[in-house]
Write a structure and sequence with these properties.
Blueprint lengths: L2 E2 L4 E2 L1 E2 H15 L1 E6 L8 E6 L2 E2 L5 E6 L3 H8 L2 E7 L6 E11 L2 H7 L16 E16 L3 H14 L6 E7 L1
Parallel strand pairs: 3-11
Antiparallel strand pairs: 1-2, 4-5, 4-8, 6-7, 7-10, 8-9, 9-10, 10-11
């Protein structure tokens, strides 16, 4: 792990990186899920809720089999996810490869009542899962929480001095 206090960069690897990924995604919950990275202009971006980060660092979503997103992934599996938990803290940028899977046991595990908005029930045959396998990830976070980060930013503006409001780094999963 690199720890450079001057740049406030803290790169993380392995399980430490997976734990940071999980923590940031649990805070943010939703992201812009971008497809058509390599093959399409413009890139397609839609809001999606991350349902789980598994022990390997894979990020799971639910989707309709015939959705435009699934069609994009079939043509170009490269995916870019942008998470933001608050105005001043907890940002996550993930680039990865998406796989569309059909796994009823996993659907049972991830199912939420709000999904009835898009599906008849958890046995709906139009359900698919998307697993995003991160290949690159970078985070920015406040080490003290949103309110203290805002106060430190205001103090920096007032004093003209740099304030230690947080850290950033690459996540090698």
């Amino acid at each position: 792990m690199e720890n450079n206090n001057d740049s406030l960069v803290h790169d993380l690897q392995g399980q430490e990186a997976v734990q940071k990924l999980k923590a940031l995604i649990e805070k943010a919950k939703t992201c812009f899920f971008c497809t058509g990275i390599k093959t399409g202009i413009p890139t397609n971006a839609i809001p999606m809720t991350a349902l789980e980060v598994d022990d390997d660092g894979n990020i799971w979503f639910i989707s309709k089999k015939d959705s435009a997103k699934n069609k994009d992934i079939e043509q170009d599996p490269f995916t870019h996810l942008f998470f933001q938990a608050s105005t001043y803290s907890d940002f996550l940028n993930v680039y990865g490869i998406s796989e569309i899977t059909i796994d009823q046991e996993k659907v049972e595990k991830l199912w939420q009542p709000t999904f009835n908005t898009w599906f008849e029930d958890k046995d709906d045959p139009s359900i698919s899962l998307i697993k995003v396998i991160p290949t690159e990830a970078h985070y920015w976070e406040s080490k003290d929480g949103q309110l203290i980060a805002l106060a430190k930013m205001a103090l920096s503006v007032f004093t003209g001095e740099r304030s230690d409001i947080g850290r950033e780094g690459d996540l090698e999963i």
